[in-house]
């Protein structure tokens, strides 16, 4: 993050959480709609930053067409991501006063809504794949560049959430439906 507030300027935010998504498509192309992702700042982050994320991505599996029965499938991904980031903390002199440490909630600072384009690559492992059902493990990395951002608080107006790197590990499961 880049901001005029010293506590926020240069803050590297590591988020932990999960996302529920719907995936549909063919062996070559699949569209992924990230319905709801909830992430919370990791313990090593000095301030509380909560993230809601939703995305619409296209995954391309260029090598699966030639070898659909292989267990490992690399893929490329790209699309648009919406983030709603909430900031909490004691950043201002008037907030400092006497801090009641018996209350675990920090004061709410504001929200940054952001749209960004993302592109990356991943690898998918077929754990179970029958005619009817599948279970796949995946790991992917995406790089995002902001295209639009709006803050709900004046103190966050000058905040720049610069290029972001996302690392995701998860499970995809479901059924093979022929339309």
Residues in helix, %: under 10%
Number of helices: 1
Radius of gyration: 20 Å
If you average the pLDDT, what whole number results? 85
For the secondary structure, the number of strands is: 7
- What share of residues are in beta strands? over 45%
Termini distance?
46 Å
Please summarize the sheet with the most strands: 7 strands, antiparallel
SSE ordering: EEEEHEEE
Which strand order does the major sheet show? 1-2-3-4-5-6-7
Describe this structure in words.
By secondary structure, the protein is mostly beta strands. Helices cover 2% and strands 60% of the residues. It contains 1 helix and 7 strands, in the order E-E-E-E-H-E-E-E. The longest helix has 4 residues, at 93-96.
At a glance:
With 179 residues, the protein is mainly beta.
Set down the secondary structure blueprint.
Layout (H helix, E strand, L loop, with lengths): L14 E11 L3 E13 L6 E13 L11 E17 L4 H4 L11 E22 L3 E19 L12 E12 L4
Antiparallel strand pairs: 1-2, 2-3, 3-4, 4-5, 5-6, 6-7
């Amino acid at each position: 993050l880049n901001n005029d507030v010293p506590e926020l300027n240069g803050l590297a935010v590591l988020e932990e959480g999960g996302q529920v998504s719907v995936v549909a498509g063919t062996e070559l192309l699949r569209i992924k709609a990230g319905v709801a992702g909830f992430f919370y700042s990791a313990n090593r982050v000095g301030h509380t930053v909560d993230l809601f994320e939703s995305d619409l991505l296209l995954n391309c599996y260029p090598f699966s067409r030639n070898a659909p029965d292989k267990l490992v499938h690399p893929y490329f991904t790209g699309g648009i991501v919406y983030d709603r980031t909430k900031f909490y903390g004691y950043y201002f002199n008037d907030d400092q006063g006497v801090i009641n440490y018996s209350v675990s909630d920090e004061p709410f600072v504001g929200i940054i809504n952001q749209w960004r384009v993302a592109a990356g690559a991943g690898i998918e492992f077929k754990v179970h794949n029958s005619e009817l059902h599948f279970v796949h493990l995946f790991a992917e990395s995406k790089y995002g560049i902001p295209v639009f951002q709006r803050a709900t608080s004046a103190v966050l107006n000058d905040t720049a959430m610069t290029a972001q790197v996302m690392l995701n590990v998860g499970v995809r499961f479901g059924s093979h439906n022929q339309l």
